[in-house]
Amino acid sequence: MVFAKNDVDxxxxxxTDSTMLPxxxxxxxxxxxxxxxxxxxxxIREKDTETRDFVEEALEVxxxxxxxxxxLIINDRVDVAMAxxxxxxxxxxxxxxxxxxxKLLGPSKILGWSVGKPSEVETLAKWGPDxxxxxxxxxxFPTLTKKNPxxxxxxxxxxxxxxxxxxxxxxxxxxxxxxxxxxxxxxxRVICQCVSSNGKRSLxxxxxxxxxxxxxDACAATKRLRGLLDxxxxxxxxxxLNETFPTTASIQSVxxxxxxxxxxxxxxxxxxxxxxxxNVTLALGSSPIMSEIESEVSELARIxxxxxxxxxxxxxxxxxxxxxxxAYNEVNRPITFDPVGYSATETRLCLNNTLLTYGQFTCIKxxxxxxxxxxxxxxxxxxxxxxxxxNMDINLLVRATQIVAFQYRTIAxxxxxxxxxxxxxxxxxxxLSSGTAGITAEDLPCMIIEDGPIPIMGDITASGCSLGSxxxxxIGGLNSTxxxxxxxxxxxxxxxxxxxxxxxRCQGSGSFHVQLIDALYQLFxxxxxxSWSASLKKF
Length: 539
Ligand SMILES: Cc1nc(C(=O)O)sc1CCOP(=O)(O)O
Ligand SMILES: C=C1C=NC(C(F)(F)F)=NC1=N
Ligand SMILES: [Mg+2]
Hints:
The protein has 539 residues and is an alpha/beta fold. The chain is 42% helix and 14% strand.
């Protein structure tokens, strides 16, 4: 049976491995369980099996695949594929070259290639549409399945670079599956985030080994995966994600929710910010806890209205940070991420990038240089990029904020004289293959908050960090009917107005600290956003 190539469904692509079978299961029983519950493509991949055994296994698996009318791909072994007339072959970068494999297989067989970087996409694009039919994009996350891994995990951002390259080199025919460490806790985030910058393309599917092959109940495991792929909505926080533009009225409602829900705001942050952040949180009718104890994050995340502020100026070990991200993501409680000094040093860049690939952040907040770096727009502005936006082109700031929001499916905040807030959440919607249907970063809703220069804001410690505390209070305090964009914009508007008010009342940086807490307290408890001094405009 020959499959029309364009009809192949790449959505749930099972790659076999008979070295991890749970007791009482066989290679064929796991494959059949997968096929019965929604696996759409199978690849037999047996690295340490003698050819005779491999051929026999492949013939058995082929019989089952035919029963479910699902194509069978053979990994690496072109000879075996030809011998049993399989539907295709998958080869890696160090296997037989693609043009040779194509010559052996003929034009109608399915040919897949492992791709980890844009230069490999350029190569396949040059070969043209008759060569590579699909690529395995990875290794997305750390995995023990692939022995002696040659590639370090690329994360969703690495996959975006590959998708962008497919668009750039016009390899429109080429399909894509993500692979490497894919499991229910990261699949929706991967499909959501892995979208080309032009919004035209997302992954056509996901490919995995252990989630099914090592599952004691492969039927249930496959059903769960199928549900995530067809779900189309990624609700990573339990409040509304929709795109309405914030108004002072909707911000007033946010503040009422915060003051009645009194959110628990867990700070994992730098030493200098701890004390001030706790006082800002208290001033905003919320309850701070400055805990970096890994063993209690799950309990804290389950406290009603819990909210995490993760400020990477903290010296907590990365495993603690990862445990905290996991704990809050697991129970759909919000995380505000402040990648302090994002790319200032190699160490920070590596730490921040690892954390960014590791979880879903509700809000990512940074100053201009941090946001420009995250958006990879800082290359031509490295010199003289100061933390303030006063002397920066507002269009560049907005574009950078929208790019961060788009790529991380988050609400991005860029702080400075002009604060930008962009909403990249798309109401949680995601789709295989067609990305965001052409919506790109510059289409994202973006608000500008300004109140003129407040130079003294830069003369105190933890002023930026404490905006993080304010955002974490507001998004933590929302009801499930509350709106995330309103909450983040409301926090930024309040903080800017309070900063302005405090700057008119203080005698210097010492009293500014105190005045700022007083102003936050006063404006919050009065809850009259329409009277705040800072202006709120749509970009
Ligand atoms: C077969 C394979 N190829 C990879 C690549 O990055 O090219 S990672 C991988 C193993 C994926 O196994 P699991 O789903 O158990 O993480
Ligand atoms: C190394 C591999 C990378 N990707 C894929 C697939 F996902 F199927 F494309 N299969 C492999 N064997
Ligand atoms: Mg290989």
